[in-house]
Amino acid sequence: MRIGIVNDLGIATEALRRVLARRADFRVAWAAASGEDAVAHCARDTPDLVLMDLVMPGMNGVEATRRIMAASPCPILVVTVSVGANAAMVFEAMGHGALDATDMPSLGGEENGGADKLLAKIDLIGRLTAAPPRPLPARAPASGAAHPLLAIGASAGGPSAVARLLEGLPADFAGAVAVIQHIDEKFAPGMADWLGRYSRLPVRIANTGDTLQPGRVLLAATNDHLSLRADARLEYVREPAQLPYRPSVDVFYKSVADHWRGAIVGVLLTGMGRDGAAGLRLLRDQGHHTIAQDRATSAVYGMPKAAAELDAAVEILPLDRIAARVRDLFAQTQTASP
Fold it and tell me: Distance between alpha carbon 134 and the CA centroid of its chain, in Å?
């Protein structure tokens, strides 16, 4: 894997070089000391991965990420001195297509685990597009009545796309909402708070034992998979352990296909890889309405593209039309209810 480093501090660049040197299969393609340099480097020599700092003089990492993903798209991992202190910038960068974020390892990172955490993140990104989508085994949908459910899946580019969708839902939205976003568990509470700034509906992280209630948004919040049990309560499950996508959209979609007793609208938004495509197809096969974001408005056209290739989406829509379509679908569901 050829990796580009973007950081304005020489000591930070050296720390990253030392971490990458621990692996024979990693090579530093180039190092850029500013956002402007990073954009130019990517245009001339697009690497397999960019390690992007956020806080830099001139063009910061958020803007550099936006420009790289627009002109020379490639996987980007945010590596900054404190992810927690820069949470808003992290979510903005992820909204433009960054895949994940981690704290900067120190020159002594071997002692505090920082180096191992960074290498694990890089390995995970390397696996993201390795496995093709596999059909999920279908079961008969659960019978009986329940309120409708909006099930949203997203990855790279997802935070801002999810925020845009939630912003378009009314305060009296009749359905329950679940969001499965590929994000490290340490960032999930901050993302729930951040989404709450845009949503008229309350947003919080999902806890084991929760139920999906109308007018409330629950966000998957651990590195395990959020799943719906037969008793209609949520839980986190480790299996399938081999999945690189954690939490997995496919796992959640399959669980609601098996156990949810009401109508489901599945929405698959921007993201790298293929997670969610097979699950969306399963929902469609069971008669639920499914929507995938279109290529033009996706920060990373991976997951929605995989869904389109599987004919998993009833509709493929630009982001700015999805909320209105969801409102219409839920209004139809309410009208059809006895």
Answer: 20
Q: Which amino acid is at 179?
A: V
pLDDT, one tens digit per residue, over 78-131 is: 998 888 788 889 999 998 999 888 888 876 644 556 888 899 889 888 876 455
Which of 96, 182, 288, 289 is labelled catalytic?
Answer: 182
Q: Which of 211, 91, 97, 77 is nearest to 163 (CA)?
A: 91
Query: Which residues, in sequence order, are bridge partners of residue 204?
Result: 218
Q: Span 55-72, mean pLDDT?
A: 94
Catalytic residue among 103, 250, 275, 294: 275
Q: What's 135's DSSP letter?
A: P
Strands 225-228 and 234-237: antiparallel
Dihedrals phi, psi of 19, to nearest 5 degrees: -65, -45
Integer Cα distance of 212 and 224 in angstroms: 18
Q: Tokens 């590929």 label which residue?
A: 182
Closest-CA residue to 133 (of 317, 260, 329, 308): 308
DSSP E strand stretches across 136-253: 149-154, 176-181, 203-205, 217-219, 225-228, 234-237
SS3 40: helix
Distance CA 169, CA 167 (A): 6
**DSSP 3-state assignment of 241?**
coil
Task: Write down the catalytic residue from 34, 72, 155, 160.
Answer: 155
Residue 275 appears among annotated catalytic residues = yes
Q: In 10 A of CB 281, how many CB atoms? A: 24
